[in-house]
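Regression check, protoporphyrin IX containing FE case 182:
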Amino acid sequence: MRSDQVNFSRYASGYDGVAKFLHWLVVLLIAAQFVIGWTMPGIHKGTRPDGLIAWHLGVGATLIAVVVLRIVWRLTHSPAPASLSPFFRVVSHITHGLLYLALVAVPLLGWANASSRGWSVKLLGVLPYPSISPVGSSAGHAMGDIHGYLAWVLFALIALHIAAALFHRFVLKDETLQRMLP
Ligand code: HEM
Ligand code: HEM
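Current build output:
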């Protein structure tokens, strides 16, 4: 098979099935985290991690595991390069890089805050994650505040990312959106 044929088929398929599955699973889990995070009751000293707070920690534990899997998969499986102009290539690399950074930082800060409250974070309710911040630590408390602010930054990045996907689909009318669809 000629090399240009190989490139064409790789471009047409874009991301592999696992990468697509993990991308959309993360979208689902993050949407849930925003809804729960913004509707759960205010947290004070002595608040019990029940109800919606327990859901936020439970979905969060799954999200952390899926994000780790996603990053490992991405580092070991490069997608075929998109046919973008140099300008859009740089902008998309920066946005994707920032999205990955926020995907790691926001959950880590939430986890640290949970640890500093003495709350355990368990994967699927059974596998406990280690505590990453001492109980009662003021740094852990501050990380909870930063978690809330950075969630807004993540929200803005996602809005920009969705706008870009729609711009590709409806203005540039190229195949970019298709690369992440089944
Ligand atoms: C990208 C994923 C996540 C998003 C979008 C998110 C979003 C939010 C939001 C919007 C709040 C409310 C902030 C406020 O009202 O000031 C919050 C609070 C909180 N989240 Fe998350 N969260 C995520 C992941 C996690 C994870 C993985 C954990 C822990 C395992 C976690 C633990 C917490 C805790 C403990 C609070 C209370 C912080 C405080 O009030 O001091 N979050 N989160
Ligand atoms: C929680 C929300 C989302 C997050 C955190 C997110 C994150 C990401 C990241 C990090 C990448 C880069 C993949 C890589 O090269 O490793 C990506 C790619 C992509 N995302 Fe999202 N995404 C979200 C929602 C969406 C939505 C709602 C759409 C569609 C409207 C979408 C469409 C795409 C497309 C088409 C690509 C491939 C871009 C390309 O080929 O260069 N994403 N996403």
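Comparison notes: The beta strands are 122-123, 127-128. The domain at 3-180 is CATH 1.20.950 (Fumarate Reductase Cytochrome B subunit). No diff flagged against the previous build.
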